């Protein structure tokens, strides 16, 4: 699995808006550092809420309200909370911001969701809930000033990954039952035997897609509680980063050893979570991917595609096989880079049209 980043990166350096502490957020697939397993079925964790500032790719500084694993570490996005099916989750939330902030996870089939009342500024509370009964990918959000939309707009979000109990997280069959049996792929070059979907995962990535309007963020961080009907985003983010920053971030880009032609290498599970208000259409160059889950179009699960739509407020999981691209000549499986981006063109820009400074990343064959 991907190692958790512990060094401080200038790209993720953040500072509190209300004090002088400097904190850093690894984001991406970094696991929530405060989470511990108290027993076979109980997970204890802590989240700290605070004001912060983020520096955009063009140097603009924008306020946000977010979560941290400790009081001195604000993260963007919040750390990935990993639980097993049916776990009892005890989450201690300390609100060090100046706004009331609650905690929510949207309901889904078989899961009633979480909707904790706002926690007053300067106080804390324990939130307890039961994890979903089936494996899957969700996201939590701080309901800033009573609004989940406000929390999402400010960046108070993080992933919650529900893993199968008593099964390896590397198993496709355990995490996505039945997908391999229905998986279908076109024959190689129209005639060859089509390669099968890999049975196991070598590494994982989590992508939280977000949108940002600086003026809206300043208003909301200052206590305004309503969003405009059309926020007109100026920045489009993956794990709080955009452009070359997200492409270079090793928690975000897909990098690994490629296999041969039609042979998987470091097969990578990518959990895509859309915390924004508009759908995303994620396109991968260099490899196609297997669709492992989709909330709106379940009939494409098991398909082999190069583009998939991620609806707002929902998640989609895919498996990137990291094969040698068949259209490279001579066929090579190393020292190659391919772009990953949103097919909605405006999302590849930032701050009035700078390209490619938006929702882009990379597939890197090492």
UniProtKB/TrEMBL annotation:
<dbReference type="GO" id="GO:0005507">
    <property type="term" value="F:copper ion binding"/>
</dbReference>
<dbReference type="Pfam" id="PF07732">
    <property type="entry name" value="Cu-oxidase_3"/>
</dbReference>
<dbReference type="InterPro" id="IPR011707">
    <property type="entry name" value="Cu-oxidase-like_N"/>
</dbReference>
<dbReference type="InterPro" id="IPR011706">
    <property type="entry name" value="Cu-oxidase_C"/>
</dbReference>
<dbReference type="InterPro" id="IPR006311">
    <property type="entry name" value="TAT_signal"/>
</dbReference>
<dbReference type="InterPro" id="IPR008972">
    <property type="entry name" value="Cupredoxin"/>
</dbReference>
<feature type="domain" description="Plastocyanin-like">
    <location>
        <begin position="266"/>
        <end position="323"/>
    </location>
</feature>
<feature type="domain" description="Plastocyanin-like">
    <location>
        <begin position="75"/>
        <end position="165"/>
    </location>
</feature>
<dbReference type="GO" id="GO:0016491">
    <property type="term" value="F:oxidoreductase activity"/>
</dbReference>
<protein>
    <recommendedName>
        <fullName>Plastocyanin-like domain-containing protein</fullName>
    </recommendedName>
</protein>
<dbReference type="Pfam" id="PF07731">
    <property type="entry name" value="Cu-oxidase_2"/>
</dbReference>
